[in-house]
Every structure is written in structure tokens, then in C-alpha cells.
């Protein structure tokens, strides 16, 4: 079978050394078969192993091949739609439960890094940067909202204060979240995979799930083997394809683009981001950036609907970087890549169960680093019979894209054009 390597990226080039993992070539029996070795799958596997389950993980390519190993590396709290939007949709009781969970994913990441000694350049502190007065007003109400759910590590910043943490004159203010932060995302997922194996879990790479035989004892088939399990967790997200047709109809893969500069040196790096916080602006189509452990700038932004790979990523993202930091005009770009995430129409994650024994979580809508770690815990709780938190997610309403799979891309692109215009005009 063809060996799928990591796509070229700064993360792949600077990844910690890991052992090669075999492809599944026989028949295996286990308690839980997890499909997908990204954050959702490995977080689920870790919580299950810690609670005595036997776990087998199937990965179509390599651990962290998808969004988990290619994202901007930012630990951002809450969901892609905030708790007030959820509250209007589902009412106060369910929103209370989801609000309490909105800040748990970042804590889980830090617990995992500490417990399993994961080397992933973890740094504390994330900035939301406001470009307009309307965005600043939104941050003020967001701070009140988050504090209502017990999240207190927040500081509003005026123009003078934000200049102390970001050397960019676009921003009129912002909010600092000290429980936010950033990581080397591929090294985090590789460390989690090693933790899974240290607890007796098995991970097979180059082993795509090609068919699920549903029933009382479900079986997952790969090209050269199969796994019989009591439960299945489907955690393929944007890389699931049509394995589970009823999940594909309600979601759409989207691409985001990232570039990484050459090493900037200590002085230039410190002049851009003196406290080494990560930053995202408050536009609908937002830009985000941070420094790496070896003092490069990672800068991402833009969305390609339908997950096509654009021909020249640097041409799309470099102008955005130079708008924020014109002082980098002579700096070379060493890496440029794209990665897919899964968008839902509501922009809220989809969590649920098919039949009695197939569980899934998908559709983080660009807010996945923290949510996926929480999702793993919530899925593991459900398999242990504690379903209250699982049900709070499972009861969120979800809708298929208008026009089905054929029209979902043009509809979403039209929406993005509209919001991009609003960003430009400062609405």
C-alpha cells in the first residue's frame, strides 16, 4: 500500500523523532476502535485507556496528518460560536453546561503536556486584537460573558497597552487571555500518540478505514485487515471522506493557509511580540500569528471553501503579514502550506451516536485545538455511561448545507465574500 508522508510544513520539518508505526495487516479485537489519530481520536483514546478500556486507533496516513498537525498552533477558548449564541439557540440550562465546558480544552492540553512530559513549546497567553470600535465593544461584552461562566484570566487592553504586546499599529485595543496560549501542534499530537502507546493502546498508520460493518459487534475494515470492537469512535473530521454518509451531508471541508518565516533572531522576534503571546484579530475572516520556539513567525489566514489547495499560498498570506508587520518586507518565507478543517452550517461541533455503539465528533469550524481535547473526554465519558455532557453537545441543532454537497461550496463562499466585505468596510 502507498505510504502517505506528511505534507511539507514547518511542523513536519521540526517534528520530534517518532518510531514508524505498522499498517494493520490482520484481524484484531478490541473494546474501542478509534478512526483517526488526530486530537479528537487520541484524546478519546487517552481518556479511555486511563479508565481501563482496550483501544485500537486506525490512521489513514500518519499521526497528526490532518488539521491536528497543520493548524496555527493557538490555544483559543470557547467555540466557533460563543456561549451567548448557543444560549439563544438552546436555552439557559443546556448553555450553562456548554459554557462550563468552554474553557476545559486548554486545561486538558496543559494537564497532558505535564503528565506525559510532551515537548511542544507550550507558551501561555493569547491576544484578541480589535481593529474597529465595534470589535472592541464585542470584546468588552465577551469578557463579561466569559466571566459569567467563571473564566477570569482576562484583561482588556487599550491602544497603549496592546502596543506593549504587539508591534502592530492596526489595533485600537484588545483582550488578553492568559489561559490561551500556543504550541507546536504536530509535536503535541505526536506526544499524545506516545502517551496512548505507553498505556497499552495500539496505533496503526497507513490504515484507512474503508468500510464500517454496523451491528451489535461492529467491524471496521481497512485494506489489509479489520478491527472488531464493542464501540467505534469516528474522529476523521475533514479527512473522513464518505465513510459515514450521514456525517458528510452536514459538513464541508475548508482549507486554511499558513506561512512561516525564516528564523528572525532574538531581537527582531522580541520586537514584534515582546511577551511571546499568540495573536488573532477579530475579523470574521481572521488573521492569526505567533512565534515558534526557534523564533520564526507563523502567520495564517484566509479560508478556501471546498478545501482546494491554492496554487500560491505565499501570494495570499504574505501581504496580510506585511500589513501587520511592514518591518518584515525583506524576510524570507521558508514554509507555506494548507490544511483542511471541517465547517458546519451552525459553526458548532457535531457530536452524536449512530445506533448503539458508533460515536462521533466533528466540525470544529476552525476552533479545534481546544475543543477536540474536550471532545475526547466527553466521548470517553459517554462510553462509560456518563452521558450528560455528551448529550449537551448531541442536542445542538444541526442542518445540512442548502443544496446538499453540490451547492454547499458556492453558498459558503458567497457568505465569506459578504463577511470579508464587512471586515473591509469596518461594519
TrEMBL record:
Protein's name according to its UniProt entry: Gamma-glutamylputrescine oxidoreductase
GO molecular function terms attached to this record: oxidoreductase activity
Gene Ontology CC: cytoplasm
Pfam families cross-referenced by the UniProt entry: DAO
UniProt-listed SUPFAM superfamilies: FAD/NAD(P)-binding domain
Keyword terms of this UniProt record: Oxidoreductase
UniProt superkingdom: Bacteria
Organism: Pseudomonas brassicacearum
Residues of the FAD dependent oxidoreductase domain: 31-381
Amino acid at each position: 500500500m502507498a505510504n502517505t508522508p506528511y505534507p511539507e510544513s514547518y511542523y513536519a520539518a521540526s517534528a520530534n523523532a517518532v518510531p514508524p508505526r505498522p499498517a494493520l495487516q490482520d484481524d484484531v479485537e478490541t473494546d474501542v476502535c478509534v478512526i483517526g489519530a488526530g486530537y479528537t481520536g487520541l484524546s478519546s483514546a487517552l481518556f479511555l485507556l486511563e479508565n481501563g478500556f482496550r483501544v485500537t486507533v486506525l490512521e489513514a496516513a500518519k499521526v497528526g496528518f490532518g488539521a491536528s498537525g497543520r493548524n496555527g498552533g493557538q490555544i483559543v477558548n470557547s467555540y466557533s460560536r460563543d456561549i451567548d449564541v448557543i444560549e439563544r439557540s438552546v436555552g439557559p440550562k443546556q448553555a450553562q453546561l456548554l459554557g462550563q465546558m468552554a474553557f476545559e480544552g486548554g486545561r486538558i492540553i496543559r494537564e497532558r503536556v505535564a503528565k506525559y512530559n510532551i515537548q511542544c513549546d507550550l507558551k501561555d497567553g493569547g491576544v484578541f486584537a480589535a481593529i474597529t470600535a465595534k470589535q472592541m465593544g464585542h470584546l468588552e461584552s465577551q469578557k463579561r460573558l466569559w466571566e459569567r461562566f467563571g473564566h477570569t484570566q482576562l484583561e482588556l487592553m487599550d491602544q497603549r497597552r496592546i502596543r506593549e504586546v504587539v508591534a502592530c499599529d492596526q489595533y485600537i485595543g484588545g483582550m488578553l487571555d492568559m489561559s490561551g496560549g500556543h504550541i507546536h501542534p504536530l509535536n503535541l499530537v505526536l506526544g499524545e500518540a506516545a502517551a496512548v502507546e505507553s498505556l497499552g493502546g495500539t496505533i496503526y498508520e497507513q490504515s484507512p478505514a474503508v468500510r464500517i460493518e454496523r451491528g451489535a459487534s461492529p467491524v471496521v475494515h481497512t485494506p489489509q485487515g479489520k478491527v472488531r470492537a464493542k464501540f467505534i469512535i469516528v474522529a476523521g473530521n475533514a479527512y473522513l471522506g464518505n465513510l459515514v454518509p450521514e456525517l458528510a451531508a452536514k459538513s464541508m471541508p475548508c482549507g486554511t493557509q499558513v506561512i512561516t518565516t525564516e528564523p528572525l533572531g532574538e531581537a527582531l522576534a522580541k520586537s514584534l511580540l515582546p511577551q511571546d503571546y499568540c495573536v488573532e484579530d477579530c475579523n470574521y475572516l481572521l488573521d492569526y500569528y505567533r512565534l515558534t520556539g526557534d523564533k520564526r513567525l507563523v502567520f495564517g489566514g484566509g479560508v478556501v471553501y471546498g478545501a482546494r489547495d491554492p496554487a500560491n499560498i505565499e501570494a495570499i498570506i504574505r501581504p496580510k503579514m506585511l500589513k501587520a508587520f511592514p518591518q518584515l518586507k525583506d524576510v524570507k518565507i521558508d514554509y507555506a502550506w494548507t490544511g483542511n478543517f471541517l465547517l458546519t452550517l451552525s459553526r458548532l461541533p457535531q457530536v452524536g451516536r449512530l445506533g448503539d455503539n458508533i460515536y462521533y465528533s466533528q466540525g470544529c469550524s476552525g476552533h479545534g485545538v481546544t475543543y477536540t481535547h474536550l471532545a475526547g473526554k466527553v466521548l470517553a465519558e459517554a462510553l462509560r455511561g456518563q452521558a450528560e455532557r455528551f448529550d449537551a453537545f448531541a442536542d445542538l441543532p444541526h442542518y445540512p448545507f442548502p443544496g446538499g454537497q453540490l451547492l454547499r461550496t458556492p453558498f459558503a463562499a458567497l457568505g465569506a465574500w459578504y463577511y470579508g466585505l464587512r471586515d473591509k468596510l469596518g461594519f
